[in-house]
Amino acid sequence: MDLSYTAEEEEFRARLRQWLAKTLPGLPPKPSPDDWPGRRAYDLGWQRTLYDAGYAGLHWPADAGGRGATPTQHLIFLEETEKAGAPYVGANFVGLLHAGPTIAAEGSAEQRARWLPPVLRGQEVWCQGFSEPDAGSDLAALRTRARRDGDDYVVNGSKIWTSHAEVADWCELLVRTDPEAPKHRGISWLAMPMDAPGITVRPLRTLAGSTEFAEVFLDDVRVPVANRVGQENDGWRVTMVTLSFERGTAFVGEVVACRRVLDELAREARKNGRWDDTPLRRRLGRLNAEFRALWRLTQWNVSESQRTGGVPGVGGSVFKLRYSQARQELYDAAAEVLGPEALDLGREWTTDRLSSLSYTIAAGTSQIQRNIVAERILGLPKGR
Amino acid sequence: MDFQLTDDQRALRAGVRELLERRFGRERLRAAVDPPRDAGAESGEGSCVLDRALWRELGEAGFFALRLPEARGGVGLGLPEAVLAFEEAGRVLLPGPLVATHLAAGEVPGAATGECVVAAVDGALVEWLDTADVVRGDVTGAVALRSADPLTPLHRVPRAAPPDPVAALLTAAEQLGSAARTCELAVQHARTREQFGQPIGAFQAVKHLCSEMLVRVELTRAAVYGASVTGDPLDIAAAGLLADEAAERGARDCLQVHGGMGFTWESDVHLHLKRAWSRARRGQGAAAAEEALAEELAAAAAEPGR
C-alpha cells in the first residue's frame, strides 16, 4: 500500500498545475445554464484547449488517439483541474467517458478513425440513447426497433433522459434488432447522426428548473449498418462495457469538488454564526470523514484498475452507492448552514441541492446498484 | 501511487488468518464464551479466561512485536501490516488486551513475546484489568462493570487517558474485521436459508441489507488502510468513525438477516455487536473525532487558496 506518487507523476502534476495557472485566466466567461449553443461552444472550446496542450483523452489508449496515461495520471488530472476550478467536461461527457472508450474497445479500425478524433479535438458532441420511457432501470426492456433495409437500419421508437441531445452530433443508440430474442439478446449498439431525418428532440424541464435533458423521438430514422459497433444482437455486452466506464470514472473530480464545498460550508458557517451550533458542526465533521474515505476509495479503485489494467469493475457500484448518498447529505447540511437562504435559488448550493437528488437515480438507481453488488460481488441468488 | 496490498502484505494477512483459524476457530470462541461451570468461578473475572498459551503463540508469530525494529528483536514492519493483523483478530473476535500489549512491545519486558499481558486505560475504560500482568495508566478508583461483552472484562476509571492515535487505528482495524465478518455471515445465511420456496437472499429487502453492509465495509477498509499509510491523526479519526459505524450496523443488520436465530445466544452475531460496542467506547469517542474533523475544515476555510 503506497499513497505516494512517483517522481514522474509528481512532475506531471507540477506541469499540469503550471499550465492550468497560465491557461484558466484566459478562458471566456461561462455561459448561462440554459444557453445550450453557448454551453456547447464553451465545452468544445475547453476540449480543444486541452487537445492543443496534449491533455485530451488522457485515459484513452494511445492507439485510439489518447495519451495512454496511467489511471493514476488520470486521477491527478481530474484532481488538479477540479482544484484549479477548470471547466467541467460538460457536453463532452458522453463522447469522452462513454461512447469514445466503447468505440476504442469494440469498434473497427474505420469506426475508430471516423469517430474518435473529433471527440478528442472538441469537434463533435455525443449523447446517450439508452433509456426509454418504459425501460428506465430495466434498461434491457428497451423497445426502440431497428429493422434492416438494405445497407441501413430503419429505427422507430423513443428515448428519454438524453443529456445534450439538443446540441449533439451523434447518439450512442441502443436498438432492438431481434424482437424474438430473449430480452438481453437481440440488442445492437448504433452510432446515430443527430441530423438524420425523422429525429425530434423535446427538452425536459427538471425539478431544478433547468433543461438538462430531453426526450428523443425516432420516426423511420435511417442509420447505416456500417454504424453498428460490435456484432448485430451483441449490443448488450457492448453496453456493459459502456456502463462500466460510466460507473468507474465519472465521479473522481466531483469528490474533490465536494471536499472544497465542505471547506466553503465551514467558512460560511463561521461567518453567519451557524458554526456555534454543535450538532451542525459535528455533522460537518462527519461529512469530512465521509469524503476523506470516499477519496481513499477512489484511490483504491483507481490503483486496482491500474493493476488489472482494464475496464473498471463493479467496485464502481460500491462507490456510487455511498457517494450519491453522501452528496445529498452534503447539500442538506449546506441548507442547514444557509438557514432561510437555503430557499434562495440565487444561491449555488440551493440549485446544487436540487441537482443532487438525481444522483441516487441517474446511471442506475441505488436499488439497481444494490442488486448489482448483491448478485455480482456477494453472489446472492437472482430474484424474480 | 499503488494503493493495493503488496504480495508480502497478502502473505502476512494469510498467515495471521491461518494461525487464528487453527488456534481460535469457532469452537474455541464458543468455549471461551461458555466455559465449563467451575472454570469461570476460579478466574475472578466471571467467565473470561485469557488463553495464555495462545497469547505466547501470537507473540512468537510476531503479532505484538510487528512494529518493533529488528535491531530490538521485532519484526520491523509498519502500521499497514499491524492494521492487517488486527483486522484478522477482529474477524475472529480474538479476546484479550491486544492493542495495549502491542503498544507495550519494546517498553514493557515480555510484552513483545506475549509472555507478559499488558492492559491499559483507553478512554474511560480498562479491559482485562484483573488478568493483566502490567497495567498502564492511572487505574486508581477503578470499578468493575458487569461487562455486556462476554469476552471483554471491563473496569471503569474516573480519569480517562489521553487518546492514542495508534490505539485508535488498531481498534478501527478490529472493527473493520468484525464488519467484514458479519457481512460474510449474513451473506452465507441469506444464500442457504430458504423461505417461501427460495433462498432469502433472492429477496431484494435482504439483498439490499447485505449490499449496504458491503458498501460500509469497503469504504471503511479504504479509510483504515489509508490512515495506516499516512498515520495522520485526522485520517485516523475519520477511519474510526466509519469503522465504528460499519461494525455496529454490520452486526445489527447481520442479526436482522438471521431472523429469530440471530436473537439467540448460540448465534455469534451478538458477540460481534457487543464487542463492536465495547471497542467504540475506546479512545476519544465520536464527538471528539467529529469536532476535530470539523476544526480542520474551519482551519482550511481560514487559509485561502487551499
What would you call the structural class of chain A? Answer: alpha+beta
Shape of chain B: globular
Percent in strands of chain A = 5-15%
Radius of gyration of chain A over all CA atoms, rounded: 21 Å
Query: How is the largest sheet of chain A built, in terms of strand order?
Result: 1-4-5-8
The helicity of chain B comes to 55-70%
Number of E-type strands of chain A: 8
Notes on the structure:
The complex is a heterodimer of chains A (about 375) and B (about 300). With about 375 residues, chain A is α+β, with helices and mostly antiparallel strands. Chain A is built from 11 helices and 8 strands. Chain A has helices spanning about 5-25, 35-50, 70-85, 95-105, 110-120, 235-250, 250-270, 280-310, 315-340, 350-355, 365-375, and strands at about 125-130, 145-150, 150-165, 170-175, 185-195, 200-205, 215-225, 230. In chain A, the strands form 2 sheets. Chain A has a 4-stranded mixed sheet with strand order 1-4-5-8. Chain A has a 4-stranded antiparallel sheet with strand order 2-3-7-6, with no helix packed on it. In chain A, strand 6 and strand 7 (about 215-225) form a beta hairpin. In chain A, helix 7 (about 250-270) packs antiparallel against helix 8 (about 280-310) and helix 7 (about 250-270) runs parallel beside helix 9. Chain A is globular, with a radius of gyration of 21 Å. The two termini of chain A are about 40 Å apart. The mean pLDDT of chain A is about 90. By secondary structure, chain B is an alpha+beta fold. Chain B contains 11 helices and 7 strands. A 5-stranded mixed sheet of chain B has the order 3-1-2-5-4, covered by helices on one side. In chain B, strands 6-7 form a two-stranded antiparallel ribbon. The interface between A and B is large, with 57 and 59 residues.
